[in-house]
Amino acid sequence: MRTVAVILAGGTGQRMGASRPKQLIEVGGRPILAYAIEAFNGHLGVDELLIVMAAGHVRTAAKIAAPFHKVTGLMEGGDTRTASTVAALTALAGRPDDTRVLFHDAARPFVDHGVIDRVLAALATYEAVAVGVPSADTIVAIEDGLVLSMPPRESLARFQTPQGFRLGTIRKAYELALADPLLAATDDCGIVHRYLPDVPIRVVTGSERNLKVTHPLDVVIAEHLAAEPDDTTESPESR
Q1: For 84-126, how does the pLDDT look when each residue is reduced to its tens digit (9 = 90+)?
Q2: Which letter, b or e, does each residue of 210-224 get, where b requires 16 or more Cβ atoms within 10 Å of its Cβ?
Q3: Rounded to whole angstroms, how far apart are CA atoms 119 and 116?
């Protein structure tokens, strides 16, 4: 069973307020995108990598990706996360349904091999796998500035990536989603949950290091993480 990791780098980073996509910002002297590629390129359970890059920056991404031998494709993304995932699925047309596909945000540069291990292990049993960390904050649903509900904190998790799927499952979910004129989703597990509700989504444990660089303060945190060794214990498969 072949495993393909897709690095989704199609965002423009508007919330960052930078002049270039956030995945091209340097931390620790290297572009954020390079860290994300390296994490999957160095994992023995990953066979190949596809990179979906923001429009107008494909050449820059190609230079960053050049040292990584598992990168087999680089394409321009769309205006939304959904469009970028569809671009990757189009590139994977013709692959067997049992191919394992991992979708990872390029803006999460410090994903470790332990997280990838857990996603791949869960894909042996499940067709869709998410990564989550417990919420340390109380989360409330609000409307017009008023609290509607306050779910128990222990039942909530903050999703991270990679999210893993059997290719046939995520392909079917997107076929249904793209036929829906009211389609609105922020991640790929959300697409499966909405359009293939009978498919259980397994949640495995993530890592606090696996932060998403979204705001300027996140760059400061990322600089510190880049300077620290990742002491996460890796499984034999990831060495």
Answers
A1: 999 999 999 999 999 999 999 999 999 999 999 999 999 999 9
A2: bbbbeeeebbeebee
A3: 5
